[in-house]
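Throughout our pipeline, every protein is held as a single compact record rather than as scattered files. The record that follows is passed on verbatim for readers who wish to inspect the format:
___
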Amino acid sequence: MHELSICESIVTTLKSQAALHDFSRVKILRLEIGQFSGVEAEALRFCFPIVALGTVAEDADMEITLVPGQGWCDSCQCTSEMQERYSPCQQCGRHGLTLSAGDEMRIANVEVE
C-alpha cells in the first residue's frame, strides 16, 4: 500500500512548511487526486490520521477532489474527457490522446492556524 508512504510525504511537507511559515496546526488539508494517478482516496483517508499523530497535521480534516481524466488530441486539436487511459477522442474518434489531466496527486491548499 503506497498510500502510507504518500501520507508520510504529505506530513513531512506540512511539517517543513509549518517551520517555514510559522503555523502550529493544519485545520484542513485539500488534495487533488487524478483518476489515473493510481492513488486510492479511501486508503489515504485511512492512513493519514495514523501518520499525522503528534504532528501539526493531527486532527486535520482531509478534503479530496477527484480530478477526471482529460486528453489532448493532436488530430483535431481538442481536449476530450477520458473514462479510461486509452479512451478515443470524443470529437474525432481517434486514439492516442495525450493525457493532460487525471494523473496528478497534489496538495491543493491547506488552512492553518
User: Anything to note?
Assistant: The first helix runs from residue 3 to 21. The two ends are 31 Å apart (CA to CA).
